[in-house]
Amino acid sequence: MEYTATAKYIRTSPRKVRLVARAISGKKVSVALNALSETSKHASEPIVKLLKSAVANAVQKKAAVETLVVSAIDVMGGPALKRWHAVSKGSAHAFKKRMTHVKVVLTEESKKGN
User: Fold this and answer.
1) Which is nearest to 74 in space by CA: 5, 3, 27?
2) How far apart are CA 14 and CA 91, in angstroms?
3) Which domain holds residue 31?
4) pLDDT tens-digit readout, 31-58
């Protein structure tokens, strides 16, 4: 069975979040949480929160936490805040403050050899 959790409007660019997401894809939940706690990236904090939320969803539906694996983690671009930066001679340069939507899918690890 699949258990999901979604986080929207994370104020970090999708590119930075994907770096952290690739590191935990396909790993057991306990290994993924340990890896995220060791990561110095700012994007690891919302992913830890999201992963714990997905585990809580699985526990509520009577799943064993030891068997859960991060089967998919989708990092999608959200809306961007358009801002301006003042430069010389009264000009301005545009830049975007990007946001991210992340979806985590956990599945139960199948027993091998059955």
Assistant:
1) 5
2) 29
3) 2-108
4) 999 999 999 999 999 999 999 999 999 9
